[in-house]
Inverse folding.
């Protein structure tokens, strides 16, 4: 039988608050750039995408996100969820209030 919860809610532990603010932090380009290795950069340059150039990565962000989030790129060395999420936030930062 359903009984109404009467206990008072506990406050969130401090570490949870830190975690939440980390989730909303927008990464800098320098951090995103560090995700791309020398091999990645060299390889993709021949396809017209310079992974160490902010403009080039912005222009190709949709295709890049598609590849890394599906684990197709970089080949045999998939990004972890932190990297994928960081890339997404960096890419969508101007509309972040509406997408998260
Ligand atoms: C994080 C690193 C990388 C990213 C973000 C990335 C991104 C991409 C993207 C967006 C495409 C599709 C281009 C299009 O739509 O025309 C692509 C294709 C391709 N990439 Fe990468 N790439 C990365 C690393 C690499 C590396 C290290 C290699 C090879 C050493 C490589 C080899 C290729 C090849 C051969 C293709 C074309 C063939 C295909 O479509 O599967 N990539 N990559």
């Amino acid at each position: 039988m359903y009984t109404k919860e009467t206990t008072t809610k506990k406050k969130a532990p401090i570490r949870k608050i830190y975690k939440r603010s980390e989730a909303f932090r927008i990464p800098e380009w320098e951090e995103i750039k560090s995700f791309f290795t020398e091999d990645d950069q060299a390889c993709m340059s021949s396809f017209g995408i310079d992974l160490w150039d902010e403009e080039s990565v912005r222009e190709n962000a949709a295709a890049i996100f598609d590849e890394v989030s599906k684990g197709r790129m970089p080949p045999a060395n998939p990004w972890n969820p932190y990297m994928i999420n960081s890339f997404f936030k960096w890419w969508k930062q101007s509309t972040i209030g509406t997408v998260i």
Q: What stands out?
A: The chain has a mean pLDDT of 86. DSSP finds seven helices and no strands in the chain.
